[in-house]
Structures are given as C-alpha cells and as structure tokens.
Design goal:
By secondary structure, the chain is α/β, with parallel strands linked by helices. It is built from 18 helices and 11 strands. It has a 6-stranded mixed beta sheet with strand order 3-2-1-4-7-6, sandwiched between helices. Keywords: Glycoprotein, Glycosyltransferase, Membrane, Signal-anchor, Transferase, Transmembrane, Transmembrane helix. Pathway: Protein modification; protein glycosylation.
C-alpha cells in the first residue's frame, strides 16, 4: 500500500508505465505499440513548444528591429565620442575644434510631417509599458536657436508624454515659424498660446511657466510629473531612466533650496509674506508632481503668495522653493525635512550644472556653458538633465551627448536598459520618506508586490 502511494507521488506517468510493463510481459505487441505512441507524443509536444517559443522570439525580434529603425542616424565624423567620454586628452583636443557641417532646413522638411518624423528619428511608438504607464509633461522656455531646441525635443519626445513650448514673444519670426511647423507635425507638442515677453529675473519667467502649466493640465489628465526645461538643456538620462527614477520618488517634488534665506534683500522691504509661507531661495529647476502644479495654479494661498512675490527681486527663485519647503501648509509633494543641498543632505538630481568652478567650455554669468572637456563627468552623474549648452560652442559636445543618448535608447528597446541605473542611490533620496503625500505614493506593500 505504501509503495503504491509513493508511486502516485512520483507521477501518474510512471504508474502507467509500470502497469503497461507488467502487461508487456504477457503481450509483446502491446508493449511495442505503447513505446511508439509515447515517443511520438513526446516528440510532438516538444516540437509544438519550441515552435511556439521561436514564433514569439521572431515576433519580438521583428518588433525590436522595427523600433530600432525609428532612431536617428547621426552623421558620422572622425572623432570618437567613446574616447572623449573616457577622458582621452588627445581626442578631446581634436574634438574641440571640429566643425559639424550639418544644415537642416527644418521649415522645408516639416512640409511633409511623415518625412520629418522619419528622417529626424522621432520615437513615435511606445518602447516599454513602464514608460507608457507613467506619462510626463514637459515645458520648454525658449527664444532662439530652433535647431538646438528641435534636437532637445527629439531626445525627450515620446508619444505618451505631452510637451508645451513657450516661444518668447520677442523671438524672431523665423524661430516662431519653425517651432509652429514642428508642433503641427506632432500631436502632443504644442506652443503656449499668448506667449510672454520674458525678462530673466523678473516675474515674467514665472508667468511663462504658469502659462504652460495651465495648458498642460487642460490638455491631458494623465501626466504625473512636470519637468521644466529651457531650450539650452539636454537629457543625461533616457525616458525609461527618468520614469524609473520618478517612480522611486514616491510622489515627492524635487526642488532645491537653501536653509538660510541668503538673499533677504530680495524681499526684506516687503515683509511679511502672506499665508505664513517660509521664504526660501532656490534653484529654478524642478521636478513637480501634478498635484503640486494644481496647487500652485489654483490654491488661494499660493496665488496670494505669488502676487506678493511680484514686488520682490528674482521671484522665480523664491516661488516654488518657498512653497516646497513650508510643510506647515501641507503642499502636495513638499519636503518635510531640512532643506539643504549638499553631499550628505538633500540631493538635487534635477540638473547637472557647474557654477563658478572648473569649466572646460565658457563661463557665462558664472554658469558653465559646457565644452567637449566637460563630457567625461556626465555619464556617471546622477542628474536627469544638464544645463547648459550653446549650439555653436564646440558643437561636438551636444553631438557626442546625442550619440550616448541614442545608444542608451537602443538598450532600452532591447531590454538591456533596465539594468543600467544603480537604483541604490535614488532609493535613498531623503524626500522619498519625508514629504507631504501628493497622491502618487506607492505603499511599501505595493512596492514589494510590484517588484516581486
Ligand atoms: C557645408 O556643406 C555644404 C554642402 O553640403 C557646402 O556647400 C558648404 O560650403 C559647407 N560649409 C562649410 C563651412 O564647410
Ligand atoms: C506658521 O508657520 C510656522 C512654521 O514656520 C508654524 O510654527 C506656525 O504654527 C504657523 N502659524 C500658523 C498661524 O499657521
Ligand atoms: C521652472 O518652474 C518654476 C516654477 O514656475 C520657475 O520658477 C522656474 O523659473 C522654471 N525653470 C525654468 C528653467 O524655466
Ligand atoms: C490652500 O492651501 C492652504 C494652505 O496650504 C490650505 O489650508 C487650503 O486647504 C488649500 N485650499 C484648498 C481649496 O485646497
Ligand atoms: C580627465 O583628465 C583630466 C586630466 O587628464 C583630469 O584632471 C580630470 O579629473 C579627468 N576627468 C574625469 C572625469 O575623470
Ligand atoms: C555608441 O555605440 C556605437 C556602436 O556600438 C559605438 O561605436 C560608440 O562608441 C558608442 N558611443 C558612445 C558615446 O558610447
Ligand atoms: C550603487 O550605489 C551605491 C551608493 O550610491 C554604492 O554603494 C554601490 O556600490 C553601487 N553599486 C554598484 C553595483 O555600482
Ligand atoms: C512613500 O510615501 C508614503 C507617504 O508619505 C510613506 O508612507 C511611504 O513609507 C513612502 N515609501 C517609501 C518606500 O519610503
């Protein structure tokens, strides 16, 4: 009886074979037929399973090939960007003087939108469901160099994201015409209506931002985070990287601010500020949750504070940093820890930017405009975007960053991109735990369930 139980546990098949073998001792023909039937069955099963598998593989390979074909083909030069990124002094020296003769008549090629998207290499299809399920909104403030902005747009563009371009009211007619033509070719790219004449350092910067924010909210209910850029920036991470990092941020904003209001003269003569807001000065680069953007645009406390800031100097550096560091106001996504930008404190990942220090390009108003020699610092940086670039200053700088960017996008398509980032750094950002909820949080339970 015990032997029989064991047999059953080993599987019905062995049991059947036993029974049959007992029978074959009595009848040989019966046994031969059984062995024949068994081998045929197994072979057929094996054939079916491998056939189906390779069918799937062929489908997947076809899809990968098709997606890879979308990406831009960059003009080749003698310079090797790989060597430049690995800090080869000779390669860097050569690349500094390289002129790239690649004139694209954007007005002409946007006459045919299909051709424009194809020839320029826009990613018009979804690469991964991770990205599709986490749509982003972008605003780009610009006033010149439409060819440079188009290359930024090409790098960040995804069919499931939404992009607002604020072309300054004082821009040349040609700039406006090119950006309008581009936006007419891409459904989810639009120009801010009623653009503003932006004066840097005045409230008009904020007005332009608010304009894009409002129109982005109206046009899409889906996006989860807003990233605001200027036309002179470029991504250091692919869309997949950015989505994976923002998901880890757990519904918090990323805004830098200093602990001490360093420049009290900016607002001293107008104190007190309304609404019990704690005044802070910070960087103008931010990653903002949708709920924060809604608060900024429509909450009375935020609107009163913004109106008061109009009287002060550099309000664009005070508005978002102050609201994001006033936990008493319960602003969605706001930081509840001590605001401090530094190595061991709050880590600001929105921008790679060099102030005052060693710059291999050119310092303009104390900010480094990057040159080829700055490239080796970028691939290992934790930052999402780099600021800033001039189209005509050492053009190989942007050209090599583009090459790196599309190499990584290629990895995203084949699936290799998922293991590129060291997520440990991002998982330990202090704002992940210390913030006011904004509705995008993943419960700890949900997080383990998803990653398992
Ligand atoms: C750039 O290339 C075009 C032809 O493609 C040529 O006519 C022009 O002279 C070149 N310009 C420079 C600066 O080399
Ligand atoms: C104003 O904010 C401070 C923290 O900065 C808080 O201690 C205080 O209770 C707030 N006052 C009111 C009236 O909310
Ligand atoms: C990003 O948006 C904030 C909030 O409106 C604004 O203060 C800042 O100037 C913007 N930054 C850029 C680069 O436009
Ligand atoms: C606006 O913000 C204030 C301060 O954060 C908050 O007390 C109030 O409930 C908000 N109003 C609305 C309508 O959400
Ligand atoms: C590149 O090399 C230079 C000198 O050859 C060195 O000063 C610099 O730190 C290096 N940069 C990186 C990112 O390794
Ligand atoms: C991009 O990929 C190509 C082909 O694998 C390689 O030759 C090139 O060095 C890569 N460029 C960079 C910047 O990594
Ligand atoms: C990932 O980053 C953490 C800290 O940011 C570091 O300790 C760890 O060694 C890194 N892992 C790899 C594989 O580079
Ligand atoms: C995400 O934020 C929520 C609410 O602020 C918090 O309860 C949760 O622990 C956070 N998740 C992680 C992984 O820190």
């Amino acid at each position: 009886m015990a032997g029989m139980c064991q047999l059953l546990r080993c599987g019905d098949l062995i049991h059947v074979i036993r029974v049959v073998c007992q029978k074959c001792k009595k009848n040989r023909k019966y046994g031969v037929f059984f062995v024949f039937a068994l081998t045929t069955g197994i072979s057929f099963g094996y054939f079916m399973s491998t056939h189906r598998l390779s069918d799937e593989r062929i489908m997947r390979n076809k899809e990968i090939t098709h997606l890879l074909e979308m990406l831009p083909v960059l003009s080749t030069t003698e310079e090797s960007c790989g060597e430049i990124f690995s800090n080869n002094t000779e390669a860097i020296k050569r690349a500094r003087n390289t002129i790239i003769n690649e004139s694209i008549d954007l007005l002409a090629i946007t006459n045919n939108c299909q051709e424009f998207k194809g020839r320029r290499g826009y990613v018009t299809e979804t690469i991964s469901s991770v990205e599709e399920d986490f749509p982003l909104a972008y605003s780009i403030l610009m006033y010149k160099d439409p060819e440079q902005v188009e290359r930024l747009l090409r790098a960040i563009y995804r069919p499931h994201n939404i992009h607002c371009i604020h072309v300054d009211a004082s821009s040349e007619e040609r700039t406006n015409a090119i950006m309008l033509a581009i936006s007419n070719c891409l459904d989810n790219v639009f120009l801010a209506s009623k653009p503003i004449n932006v004066q840097w350092g005045s409230f008009s910067v904020v007005d332009a931002e608010l304009l894009c924010m409002k129109q982005l909210l109206q046009r899409s209910r889906k996006w989860k985070y807003l990233i605001n850029l200027t036309g002179q920036e470029f991504p250091l991470k692919t869309n997949l990287d950015i989505v994976r990092i923002l998901k880890v941020m757990n519904g918090s904003n990323m805004v830098s601010a200093s602990t001490q209001p360093l420049d009290v003269t900016r607002w001293r003569s107008h104190l007190p500020a309304p609404g019990n807001v704690s005044l802070h000065k910070g960087s103008t680069h931010a990653l903002l949750t949708r709920a924060f953007v809604q608060y900024l645009l429509y909450n009375k406390t935020a609107k009163d504070f913004a109106r008061w800031l109009r009287k002060t100097n550099f309000p664009d550096e005070s508005l978002v940093p102050s609201l994001n560091h006033s936990p008493q106001l319960q602003v969605p996504g706001a930081y509840t820890g001590v605001p401090k930008t530094g190595v061991d404190g709050y880590r600001f990942i929105a921008r790679f930017k060099i102030w005052y220090r060693a710059c291999n390009g050119k310092l303009v108003r104390n900010v480094c405009v990057f040159g080829v020699g700055d490239l080796p610092k970028m691939p290992r940086s934790h930052h999402l975007f780099a600021n800033k670039f001039y189209f005509n200053l050492e053009p190989m700088t942007l050209r090599c960053l583009e090459e790196l960017h599309y190499n990584k996008t290629r990895e995203d398509i084949t699936g290799a991109g998922f293991s590129r980032l060291n997520m440990t750094f991002y998982n330990n950002l202090p704002n992940i735990k210390r913030h006011i909820p904004s509705g995008l949080e993943t419960s700890d339970e949900g997080r383990t369930r998803k990653t398992s």
